[in-house]
Task: structure prediction
Amino acid sequence: MRKLLPLAFLFSLASISCQDATGVAMDKPAPVSSDETPKVEKPAPAKAEPAPGNDKYVTIKGKVVWDTGKAAAPKRTPIKATKDEEVAAKDKDFNTEEWVVNPKNNGIRDVVVWLAPEPSEADLADLKSGKKKEFPSFAAADIHPDLAKPAKPSVEIDQPCCRFIPHVVVARAGQNMLIKNSAPVPHNAKWVSRNNDEINPLIPPGGEYVVKDLKPERFPIEIACSIHPWMKAWVRVFDHPYFAVTDEDGNFEIKNAPVLKGKLRIFIWQENGIHGGAPGRFGQTLEVKPGSMDLKEIKFDTGK
Result:
């Protein structure tokens, strides 16, 4: 890790070059009635196709889209830089990212989708009443052997101009979080979390900062740069491998999830809320079979 330089010195650095930018508390949950049944849109029926020799696991895919039947999709707008304008100007995609909806197919980017085991009736009642806070997770023995350990030791987020890229990062417990600064100007990375400390390092041009050995988080972690106040990103950390972030078309795929007793819970989060509104905090039951399962289009609904 590079040594962090004094703030006064860093602000005197001249802008030299900037590569082109390409590219979860979730908002604190609203109170939920203890007996309220989640009114979450059911995915279209899907056929599960058995995979030879792989009869304990299911791969689930789908597409999260904007519901144009309720409202027109929000459009991204140019960000107004108030500092280091010459650096921000080199970013060819310098637009807001609170909602990134593909105008061609209404797919929503940067939506986090994850799975959990179906809870018992008693556990679900305790979750709704607040007696329990944490949803049950997958036992180590249930995780597919290929996914027993993270595929790589670290996940990364960069600040090549004046945006965090990517805007949403997902990680698995035990991985490191590498926060980079490829810009010719200094950035900071203010990070406040419940289980992964509170930091606000000043990162010089070409520098980096590492948050080691991530712990699972029930809520998303927001990263912000106070030097450039429009900069914001989100990190979610899970204690299992069954999660995904939607791509430019809203597509996601979660591979080799255990079918367990034939039921799993699916959760769908975007920085403006969770699918299904407050009741969606408890997810939606999916009936699963070994093989593959396509949920087709899921119209995202925050319940607002």
Observations:
- The first helix runs from residue 7 to 11.
- Residues 20 and 91 are 5 Å apart (CA to CA).
- The helical segments are 7-11, 85-88, 121-129.
